Amino acid sequence: MSCLLNPSNQHLHSQCDFDVKPKDPASIIQESLSKLLVYYYPLAGKVKIETDGRLRIACNADDNNGLPFLVGTACKLSSLNHLHGIDVQAGFTVALRLSHSVCDGFGAARFFQALTELASGKDAPSVKPVW
What we know:
single chain, Chloramphenicol Acetyltransferase, two-stranded antiparallel ribbon, two-stranded antiparallel sheet, 2 helices, transferase activity, CAT-like_dom_sf
C-alpha cells in the first residue's frame, strides 16, 4: 500500500493497492483485544465479594466465562442527521464497562490507547500496566 502527501494543498491522497482484502474493524478490534487482555487480565475477570466483604477479581477459567464481544449492524445512518455537512458512510463504536474498583478513568484511557496500538499492528502496548 502506498499513500502520498501532496505538499501543494496539504491533503492526503491515497493510492492503495491491497493484495488481500482488509479485515473488517470488528475482527481487528477482537483480535487486538484478545492480545491486550494478556496485559490487562483483571479487566477480563469478574469482581466478587468475599465473605469478609473484601473485593476479589476472579481471573481464571473456573470463575470466568470470558469477555463478551458483541458486533451489531445498522441498516440506516439517518440517526446521524445532526452531523450537517458531513457525509457519513460507515463507522464503528467501541464500548467498555468496568468497575472503578478495578480501573480508574486514566487506566481506562491507557487501556484504549494500548488497544489502538495493537490494532495498528504493534506487538505490545508501549506502556504496560502494573497491577
